[in-house]
Amino acid sequence: MSSQLGRCTSLAGGALLVLLGCSGTADRPAETAEQTSSLPSRVPVTTTDSSGDDGQWIMPARNYASTRYSSLTQITAQNVAQLQLAWTFSTGLTRGHEAAPLVVENTMYIVTPFPNYLYALDLTQPGAPTKWTYKPDPALASQGVACCDLVNRGAAYWDGKIYFNSLDATTHAVDAKTGKSVWRTRVGDINKGESTTMAPLVVKGKVLVGNSGGEFGIRGWLTALDANTGKLAWRAYTTGPDQDVLIGSRFKPFYSQDRGKDLGVSTWPGDAWKIGGGGVWGWISYDPDLDLIYYGTANPGPWNPDVRPGDNKWTAAMFARDPDNGEAVWAYQWSPHDLFDYDGVNELVLLDLPIKGQTRKVLIRPERDGYIYVLDRTTGEVLSADPYGYITTTKGIDLKTGRPIEVPEKAPQTGKVVREICPAAPGTKDWQPSSYSPRTGLLYIPHQNLCQDEEGVEANYIAGTPYVAAIVKMYAGPGGHRGELTAWNPLQRKAAWKIKEKFPVWSGTVVTAGDVVFYGTMDGWFKALNARDGTELWRFKVGSGIVGQPIVYRGPDGKEYVAVLSGVGGWAGAVVAGGLDVRDSSAALGFVNAMKDLPQATTKGGMLYVFALP
Amino acid sequence: MSSRFRNTAFAGQRGRSGYGCHPERSEGTIAMAFNRPFGSFASLRMTIASLRMTIFATTVLTLVGCQREERNFQGMPPSATSTMPATRQTGLQPGPPVRSGPMNGPYEQNAYGVSQGKTLYNQFNCSGCHFQGGGGIGPPLMDDQWVYGSSPENIFETIVEGRPNGMPSFGGKISPDQIWQITAYVRSMSGLLRKDVATGRNDDMQVRSQEQAADKAKPVQSVIPPSAERQ
Amino acid sequence: MTASGMLSLIQQSHSVLNPSSPQARLIDRLWDAMYLVSVIVFLLVVAALLWGTFRRRGPEAPETDPGRERSLTTAVSIATALTVLILFGFLIYDVAVGRQLTRGFGKEALQIRVIGHQWWWEVQYRDSIPKNWATTANEIHIPAGRPVALELLSNDVIHSFWPPTISQKRDLIPGKDNSLWLQADTPGVYRGQCAEYCGNQHAKMGFLVIADRPDSFASWLARQRDTALTPTTALTRRGQEVFLASTCVMCHAISGTPAGSRIGPDLTHLASRQTIAAGTLPNTRGNLAGWIVNPQSIKPGTRMPPNQLDPNDLQALLAYLESLK
Asked: How far apart are the first and last CA of chain C?
């Protein structure tokens, strides 16, 4: 095994070249090949794997295809029960820790929640001491425009630099070895309600960042900065005229409702598109063969739909763009005239799957509205959309038109209370990313099971203050459990197995070639499951609930390590991270009502936990 | 004596004698008194006494209600700067401490002001960060933890000046009079106002019990929010 | 047209007895009929009373004279029957008028949503094309001769919509959507009033329904759909700065600027309106200045607070607001 690994990792010590990932089949032991005989003989991880050497973790999604799959095999379903704590690191902060640690050249990089410290830990020394700390000093006032705790979803590594965002709409490039600032660029304005919480993606020498603030009446955008200088390369707005949205002659949307001139203006009343939301605070994927980046846009603002008739393009949608100049190649809107805060920013897993006898280049999106979409990533055609949770807000997706079939009684209105809106505003799944194993062929989706009641109220746009105009109260969906881990089979289009959890599963998942999937719960259990059948194999109680993204890496000693940040928070954990009062059901946009028991189940506090076999 | 009191007090109450259907019975209902104004002297004295008590009680309640419902639209709005002594956020002072008397915001006893404050609290998007007191983007306002002081003038300053960890500065954007109204409402959220001054249930979807029913949460000085801690 | 001339025109046309629309005429005719019949009945009753008081009485008739009893019974029965018939007649007439007033709107009706606030009227022109939505306040323009369907909602308490010369009353009830249709025969300015006590300034919650010729209505609506004119002079630019830097921006929206609050009336086309403060004052520079500086002296209890502005800033602000045609 080690020699095979050695083959794949022979360049680990040298300069990092972007390689096509070693195919999973080369490392698979013989018996596993039999077990996967029901799958096609070669299910490639993806043709777009570009994570470099195995054993590192250079971007939160692991690779441009966003599989979050590690091909390390030291930890297996058979031995994971022996996993034990190797070392820990306290961040000293108490807000939600949503980031994925990075491991590059035997250094681990962690971005904390506000005030967004970047720690570099030396993995070659026992106990991983801090090499350096970079403190971006974000504006204190930016804490007032962050809707959902003061989180940060991680950094990205490229060409000797670490790139990450601080909360006050500033992107930083830091030298990975010395911790000195290379450049910092202000990309947004907190006085307009903008902030940045997403993990950037570096593609072809450009750092892609998007803004947050759909609850503050921002105008959403995706910006590309030159990775060496930090200067603006291009900016694609989510709303507005075609020239701002970078829609030009190359734009060929698949569905007719997405064709037309200046739809980013005409599908809004007056100039509501200027405060229409549509931030880009989630995940971006990239296909090097097609040379397209894929990302989603967030909810339109305000939540109360009465004041924004029309389809509200291009919010709650996704774009395929050329990374060099940002021009749009195709787009698809998940939720035209979104009524339920179904941000369209979740991860997009790029796979080549056999569908109806043909291998198709697809992307899979476990979407907020409760459907697992499979789209053809060359054209934007919806090949399937199957529910993975309980849904009352739509009756299905009409594959002929691509539009959701709405349920008019569930539309929120000013002055009227609508009950049993399922899924609730965080959707069946929010930002927390899923992972895909080419060995099992399953997508491991961490998500929730929530419903809500909502009443629309008067919408007053006052720049710098929230622009939501709805009173919301969430509660557990059918069954009473608020979280689920679903193992979804995209070929069979159904769940292989599901695990029910008491609290929403707000952490990411990671799956390995050892057929183990890791995830964390909000009451502080870090768990390992058998990736094939979902049997729980191991669990460990950490200090605070887990809302971060676990990673798997190989340490300098050759051992396989699993690392995860604990520190409850995020939108789901705001009741603990923010010390909120559970007597107000509408607090934290209604989430507090569904999490009244969280303060008894966990306290706050950020800590990195790293596990390994003894 | 007691049997007579049973039949006195409020008109319309049926005493043993009924409604005056039996005028020959002379127990002292008020109705009886009016039918027979020159009835027995004892019953007349009883009637006057009960009348006096009624008038007294009504006057007291009306005056209290007057204060509670007073609306002064034409007076100049109270200014933040003119007559207010320095607003302090700590009791620690150098030298012998100067004790200033308890300061009251102008709307602490005024139900109309508090209800206007509630309307403004929602319209100016205070509810967008603080929701109905539970907090979210901003800290809760219905609990006993106060980071920047719980007295009316402290809350007034917080709204006017903003605070470093994300509270915007509304000075110059909301008139001082309206800020005092919002201040009074904020204090009512944790039960710091009298129950007859605090507001009742909304017509909106109910997400918290009414402010009138809030038990008084004795203010406690809270530490600066942890997110503001630097290393 | 001068402000005072316009004002007298409004006052002239304010009377409910001066109908200017099919609906108002129906009501007026019903009123006339009831009035006429009431007058006749009144005269008859008074005549009967006088006759009964002053008629020459004959010798005392015996107590129980069957003939007399019978004639008395007949007379009372006839009078009662007549009364019932008249009242039933009016009931039927009234119901018929009511049905006519509320009959369904044809497709040609223009849809307008009116939302009552304390103490002003928000008016939204809705369209199937979202780009064509327009919002204004206190002044409803309609095309003369074309039916208009009004959707009536309330933001806070119960109000009532009543332009007496062209329409019946219809309440605006929070939590309920009411509707009303009306049609103005001829172009003109028709004043309306809130007709349900709604707080301190109920008395000063008026509005204007202005019926335009179809072409001027179309151009008015097109202008209302536009964003506000950008200030072109230094003074109006300063005025816009003052607007955005003061309390104004918290409550008022001006489309095309960062001001987007709906607490108070939309000011995007303020200068195109004939009155301010919900029909309380003509829209002149002096009135506007007084209103901005101290609305409490004009409408005590209104939601707008006094605003102490530097005199130069006030002049700039007025110049800017006057430019918002």
From this structure: 16
**C-beta neighbour count of C43 within 10 angstroms:** 10
What's the whole-number average pLDDT of chain C? Answer: 91
SS3 (DSSP) at C318: helix
**CATH number for the domain that contains residue A549:** 2.140.10.10
Among A residues 279-338, those touching chain C with beta carbons less than 8 Å apart? 307-310
Question: pLDDT per residue over A295-316, tens digit each?
Answer: 999 999 999 999 999 999 999 9
Cα torsion C307, C309, C311, C316: sign = negative
Contacts A119 to B, Cβ<8 Å: none
Place of tokens 């000085």: B221
- Given C221, C256, C274, the domain boundary residue is C221
Task: Indicate the pLDDT class of residue C57, thresholds 50, 70 and 90.
Answer: confident
User: Is the CB of residue A464 less than 8 Å away from at least one CB of chain C?
Assistant: no
Which one of B125, B131, B145 has the shortest CB-CB distance to A465?
A: B125
The residues with which C208 forms a beta bridge, in sequence order, are C139, C191
Segment B115-145, tens digit of pLDDT: 999 999 999 999 999 999 999 999 999 999 9
Is residue A71 predicted with pLDDT exceeding 70? yes
Residue C128 inside a domain? The answer is yes
Domain extent at residue C313 = 234-322
Tokens encoding A301: 């603002």
Phi-psi label, residue C71: left if phi above 0, alpha if psi -120 to 50, beta otherwise: alpha
Report the number of distinct structural domains present in chain C. 3
Range of the domain at A263: 2-612
Residue C16 maps to a domain: no
| CATH number, domain B111-225 | 1.10.760.10
The tally of domains found in chain A comes to 1
Tens-place pLDDT, residues C158-191: 999 999 999 999 999 998 999 998 889 899 999 9
* Residues of A forming the active site: 215, 299, 341
CATH 1.10.760.10 location in chain B: 111-225
Could you report the predicted ipTM of this complex, rounded to two decimals? Answer: 0.88
